[in-house]
Amino acid sequence: MPDLVRLPLKTRAGRPLPHKFFRQSAEPAGLLLLFPGNLYGVDGPLLFYPSVILGGRGWDTLAIAYEFQVTGGGIGHQGLQGIFDDCRQAALTALQGRKYSRVGLVGKSLGAGVVADLCANMPELAEARAAYLTPMIGTPFFDPVFVRTVQPAYLALGTADAFYEAQALETLQAEHPFGLTVIEGGDHSLVVAGNWEASIEALRRVTGEVVEFLTGTR
User: Fold this and answer.
1) How many CA atoms lie within 13 A of 19 on its CB side?
2) Is 21 exposed, middle or buried, given 0-12, 13-18 or 19+ CB atoms closer than 10 A?
3) Angle at Cα 58 formed by Cα 53 and Cα 64, nearest 5°?
4) Residues pairing with 35 in the sheet
5) Which of 81-90, 145-154, 183-192 is least confident?
6) Which of 84, 104, 168, 204 is the most buried (most CB within 10 A)?
7) Of the listed ranges 60-69, 74-83, 151-160, 169-178, the one predicted with least confidence
8) What are phi and psi of 124, to 5 degrees?
9) 3 state SS of 105
10) Measured distance CA(132)–CA(146) in Å, rounded
11) Contact (Cβ atoms closer than 8 angstroms) between residue 151 and residue 174
12) Taking residues 81-109, what's their average pLDDT?
């Protein structure tokens, strides 16, 4: 069974950085790093279930909350660079002390941009795999950073998401190939409005594909 471990994570201002780090007592099968969205926390189902499944398969799992989510100051209060710096610190701290045969990153929306930044700028993650859930396709925040990454990538979006645009996806994939799941009618949380069965099926499908991708079985 994994133990909940407190890492000495602090923001640039010296405040504790909230996180959930579950560490296996035995040799881990891998390390999973999870980064939430602006209004979508690490306990949201698209992040929670991959963590539960891989944790049950012997992975260490680290889920980060951003400083602005705790203080209520908004992204502008912390700034994107502050978010990136805090998350790099968290990733480096989690990687210390253990040798991981597999490293997987999952980011939701804002967190997808964080994952792209980490993959583009951290040599320690060169062999990782990265899953981007509802990324902000077509924006300077995501596209130019993502195309600089070299890690195998998987993306999931819904056709009712404001950031979904088929041509932008095609252009992006030509620059950096990636696995892709498109949920018909799915919104920015991959929820299909008025159809809970389709929403649960979308969650089941994407969760399974994220796990398969990160474990190298997809």
Assistant:
1) 28
2) buried
3) 65
4) 107
5) 81-90
6) 104
7) 74-83
8) -65, -15
9) strand
10) 10
11) no
12) 93
Phi/psi at 53 (nearest 5 deg)? Answer: -65, -50
153: left (phi over 0), alpha (psi -120 to 50) or beta: beta
Q: What is the DSSP string of 32-76?
A: EEEE--SS--TTSHHHHHHHHHHHHTTEEEEEE--HHHHHT--HH
Judge whether residue 218 has pLDDT over 70. no
pLDDT at 208 over 70: yes
pTM over 0.90: yes
d(CA 48, CA 62): 11
E runs forming strands in 65-199 = 103-108, 129-133, 153-158, 179-183
Cα separation of 167 and 177, whole Å? Answer: 14
What amino acid occupies position 88? R
Which residue stretches of 164-195 are H helix?
166-175
b/e per residue 174-200 (b: at least 16 CB within 10 A): eeeebbebebebbbbbbbbeeeeebbe
List of domains in the chain: 3-214 (3.40.50.1820)
User: Which helix H or strand E contains 21, and what residues bound it?
Assistant: strand 19-23
Q: Is the pLDDT of residue 127 over 90?
A: yes
Q: In this predicted model, what pLDDT tens digit does every residue of 8-50 receive, in sequence order?
A: 888 777 888 889 999 999 999 999 999 999 999 999 999 999 9
Helix or strand run (H / E) with residue 30 = strand 30-35
